């Protein structure tokens, strides 16, 4: 089977979607599939002939046109087009690929993300779905919906997103929930490496440095915790300098033991050495990094939004914070870190939960969808 994966980001870009497409290509390749990638990139490299890159530099319109041409050119030679973003090029190219099996994976609302990044609106993700918009936002919203409607099937990772996409007017029979997947690296951390053994408590948060992740709120909450607490902040993004300034203003650098990007294996190693994972997002479709924390047996304190409640069962493998209450957030962190019995029980429940997110199951369901099998 020849599969064309279209994605906005791909390694060396960082983030869950980039790693997902990389791993999916590897898994499909081992099953004998011929997989080609089309992606935007900061650096155009031809080292891998099966990865077609389009420079993010230069004129926006020209790169969209180039992307459309490449999707059509390679799509004609493929059995399946699997789109992970790039809605506008995919939408236009789909008119020329009507006899191909076309599937899109939807994990976000890029119109809402654009509005958040550029501070155009303050509405949360759910309210934005019903918000009347105009101009560019209206255009982005419509392209997203029209692109989804042109697909034969739409893949979503959570029931939450399934309901959102159905509200867009996509028939429920065309929406397929396939859970995200993760394969942890094979290594263990000895007890002498645990920060807790040295008298400190290690907290960890990870994600893109963008407004809806609310990492600044995590830093503010952390500043009110006792001195033995340490925090690692893993990620990259446009708010990096702002977050550094927040840390400096609160004089917290001596308690921050990592700030910035980490390779996936290094992030997982840090998870194994941490006491609690923190997520204070105002929106999550289904968090890749939260799934990773389950494999590491790392209890989490997360906001009760989006797909978070499909991974975290309140009081079992972590805590859900309603209404983004900062005092409740701090209280639940302390509860996990200061109650060893509760922490051990949550750790076991995390590992049990992780079994739901295997690559074997994910790829099996996806192949069945690619072949249009019931």
Structure description:
By secondary structure, the chain is an alpha/beta fold. The protein has 2 domains: 2-181 and 358-370, Rossmann fold; 191-354, Rossmann fold (3-Layer(aba) Sandwich). 42% of the residues lie in helices and 17% in strands. The protein has helices spanning 16-30, 60-76, 87-94, 110-117, 125-128, 135-149, 159-167, 215-223, 240-249, 264-272, 288-295, 308-311, 326-338, 340-354, 359-370, and strands at residues 2-7, 34-41, 51-55, 80-84, 101-105, 153-156, 175-177, 201-206, 229-234, 256-260, 276-279, 300-303, 318-321. Residues 189-197 have low confidence and may be disordered.
Write the CATH architecture name of the largest domain. 3-Layer(aba) Sandwich
Number of structural domains: 2
Give me the secondary-structure category. Answer: alpha/beta
The total count of helices amounts to 15
Strand order of the largest sheet: 3-2-1-4-5-6-7
Briefly note the CATH topology name of the largest domain. Rossmann fold
CATH superfamily grouping of the largest domain: Glycogen Phosphorylase B
Strand and helix map with partners:
Blueprint: E1 2-7, H1 16-30, E2 34-41, E3 51-55, H2 60-76, E4 80-84, H3 87-94, E5 101-105, H4 110-117, H5 125-128, H6 135-149, E6 153-156, H7 159-167, E7 175-177, E8 201-206, H8 215-223, E9 229-234, H9 240-249, E10 256-260, H10 264-272, E11 276-279, H11 288-295, E12 300-303, H12 308-311, E13 318-321, H13 326-338, H14 340-354, H15 359-370
Parallel strand pairs: 1-2, 1-4, 2-3, 4-5, 5-6, 6-7, 8-9, 8-11, 9-10, 11-12, 12-13
Helix pairs in contact: 2-3, 3-6, 4-6, 11-14
